[in-house]
Amino acid sequence: MNDLVLLSLIIFIFIRVIGLGISIDFLNGTKAEKFKFLALGWFFWMLGVVTPILSNLVENIFLKEILLVLNAFLAALGTIFVLWGFFKYFMTVSFKKMVILIFIFFISTVLLFLITDYVVTIAFCALFMNLLFFSTFVIPPIKKKSFKKFMGRSIIWYYASVLILSIFFPVSIIIALQGYRYGLYNADDPVLITFNYLPIMITSILFIILLVHLEYTTSSRQQLELKDNYSHDLGNILQVISSAFELIEMKGRSEAETSELGELLKDKLNEAAKQIRDIREL
Question: Closest Cα to residue 127, out of 55, 191, 186, 79?
């Protein structure tokens, strides 16, 4: 394995560990389902980078082939989960359909490896992953209204990620036309290796920035919405309390009516206290 390829893989591991850590941190803080998928995606991406390094250390040909297939398979699997988590920001993603997609992909990969060879299997996984990446160009325009609403100012990082990622597609075609295999693990051309790995590295970093920016933007928007709702509810509660006091002060009310109004006041004061506690937690 070329030293530049090995260095690129090591850098990928660090980037994806950071992505995994951020996703887990957001998951612990928000308990949002999308971060489960994002965390799984970064985890599979990280494992996918480790397998080609291990393949360079083993002598057994069959084991080496399995590790290289796992490299492409885990990369594509990680892409499914990362995009699953990302798309959940602005659209409904069917859990059942995604599970079926993963199952079909897994079965297809296993059958191809058993029926053909590892080269064809890797090519299939790479093509599948490229199609998944291409969906980032197609789906947001289809869901344009909800996409722009939820992205907000974070959309600039999305466009930057897509712009850099678009460089990867013509490069991958050039690599395929020159007879190189996925990952360029046996290549020695530093220019080609750089153009193969650098766009994905930069896209990964930009995607991490996008997720962090998007999450904080979303959290800020939700807090503002909650504060508006709470202030509106508090206004209604205070109006009821004020009206109840006016009714109590009116003469001619029976003891039962006064007691009932007192209970109403007590309930509304408890509601107001709860609203204030919730606001303080924002």
Answer: 79
